[in-house]
């Protein structure tokens, strides 16, 4: 072929590819699998072209990031790059996720916990951590005494992380630097010495892993596998029976051998590293369970304050053993069987004290990471709520108005309605808050 024609064909092909990429960037006509929020929400702060911005490189960085955001097929290019880095170099695009041996995925926070980095960053030394733990235990004893005056029992559930149970699969730099001191063990020791009701799944899971027929944790996730939930759920129910006079139902296996592929939270970490090819996961048993021996049993009200490890229990029949229940995730966000409390922030709820006072059982369920921020401050929250008592009408109105102000769309509607009514925004805000309060009271 004539060289001139060869060059023309090459030029046309290159321009066609580049044009396709540009068109895709502006139109998104080809629907690509979206990247995870961590990668996709890359902030692009605009920089003006000035000598200072050019010299420090911020303008060039702005151009590069802006081009990346607008590049067509960037999801595909990114996944290709991530796949090569993951397969051949063990690197992940998300710094919060690390690859261990046998393609086990770990949260960086859990790795930093078992190596002692989180403890050092938080306390500076082991002695300082012990001193704080002793103070927290004293506050817990005071809280238990206050709760019992209100007819409420307290149970702490120590949950293990994947790094504590399967450290052998951790990335080598972390595996070689495991700390000799474990804060969870120190808390468990203090709880035993002070007779604080608790369940130690932390050390039990470590002892169980060699004899368990199923993996206790998923390969591409960071929460305990669903095959452990029946044991965990029934253990908590039996412990509550020992602590109280309540008679609770038992967990029954409908089909203990049912299994299926990983899905949902089982692959939660993989979805955040944006690989081109999904990781191959073994089948994981998912026992089907139900409550048995339920006739004539008690159904106490339950309040759980904890981290995300309670979510699988909430999705199981475990929660059906109780009457009204509330789950204060990280002592911040509420999920509840009560519609008025469902998915609201605690500082936007005017009946938090009432919810705590009505609870027959309070369960604190945390992994070792959150012992560094002990119960997310629940001991102080609970003491303040119980001392203050039920929220007054004025305080309830202020909470509702704050809830409205925190929602831009809701607040915009309030402002528009105020114009139509010919009153001030504050007056209309109060009217709406009064209406909401009356409706929630009626419900």
List keywords for this structure.
443 residues; alpha/beta; two-stranded antiparallel ribbon; 19 helices; 13 strands; 48% helix; globular
Topology:
Elements: H1 3-27, H2 37-40, H3 51-56, H4 58-70, H5 74-89, E1 97-99, E2 105-107, H6 108-114, H7 117-123, H8 126-149, E3 153-159, H9 162-165, H10 172-175, H11 183-193, E4 198-200, H12 201-208, H13 229-243, E5 250-255, E6 259-260, E7 284-285, E8 288-292, E9 302-306, H14 311-314, E10 325-329, E11 333-336, E12 344-345, H15 352-358, E13 361-367, H16 378-388, H17 393-405, H18 408-421, H19 425-442
Parallel strand pairs: 3-4, 3-13, 9-10, 9-13
Antiparallel strand pairs: 1-2, 5-8, 6-7, 10-11, 11-12
């Amino acid at each position: 072929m004539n060289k001139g024609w060869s060059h023309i064909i090459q030029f046309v092909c290159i321009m066609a590819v580049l044009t396709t990429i540009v068109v895709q960037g502006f139109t998104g006509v080809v629907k690509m699998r979206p990247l995870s929020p961590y990668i996709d929400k890359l902030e692009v702060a605009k920089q003006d072209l000035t000598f200072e911005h050019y010299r420090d490189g911020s303008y060039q960085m702005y151009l590069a990031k802006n081009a990346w955001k607008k590049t067509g097929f960037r999801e595909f290019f990114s996944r290709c790059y991530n796949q090569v880095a993951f397969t051949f170099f063990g690197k992940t695009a998300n710094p919060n996720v690390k690859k261990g041996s046998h393609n086990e995925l770990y949260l960086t926070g859990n790795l930093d916990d078992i190596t002692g980095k989180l403890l050092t960053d938080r306390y500076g030394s082991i002695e300082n951590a012990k001193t704080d733990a002793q103070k927290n235990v004293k506050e817990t004893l005071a809280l238990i005494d206050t709760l019992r005056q209100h007819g409420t029992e307290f149970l702490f559930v120590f949950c293990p992380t994947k790094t504590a149970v399967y450290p052998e699969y951790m990335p080598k730099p972390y595996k070689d630097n495991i700390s000799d001191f474990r804060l969870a063990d120190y808390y468990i020791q203090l709880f035993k010495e002070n007779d604080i009701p608790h369940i130690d799944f932390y050390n039990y899971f470590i002892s169980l892993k060699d004899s368990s027929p199923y993996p206790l944790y998923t390969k591409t996730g960071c929460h305990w596998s669903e095959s452990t939930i029946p044991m965990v759920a029934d253990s908590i129910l039996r412990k509550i029976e020992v602590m109280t006079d309540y008679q609770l139902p038992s967990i029954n296996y409908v089909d203990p051998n049912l299994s299926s592929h990983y899905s949902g939270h089982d692959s939660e970490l993989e979805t955040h590293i944006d690989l081109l090819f999904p990781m191959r996961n073994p089948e994981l048993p998912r026992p089907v369970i139900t409550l048995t021996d339920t006739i004539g049993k008690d159904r106490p009200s339950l309040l759980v304050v904890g981290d995300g490890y309670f979510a699988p229990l909430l999705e199981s029949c475990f929660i059906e053993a109780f009457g009204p229940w509330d789950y204060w995730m990280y002592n911040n966000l509420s999920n509840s069987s009560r519609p008025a409390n469902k998915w609201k922030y605690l500082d936007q709820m005017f009946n938090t004290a009432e919810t705590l006072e009505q609870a027959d059982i309070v369960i604190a369920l945390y992994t070792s990471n959150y012992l560094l921020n002990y119960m997310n401050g629940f001991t102080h929250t609970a003491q303040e709520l119980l001392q203050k008592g039920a929220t007054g009408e004025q305080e309830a109105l202020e909470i509702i108005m704050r809830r409205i102000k925190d929602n831009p769309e809701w607040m915009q509607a309030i402002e528009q309605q105020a114009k139509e009514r010919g009153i001030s925004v504050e007056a209309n805000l109060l009217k709406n808050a009064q209406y909401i309060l009356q409706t929630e009271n009626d419900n």
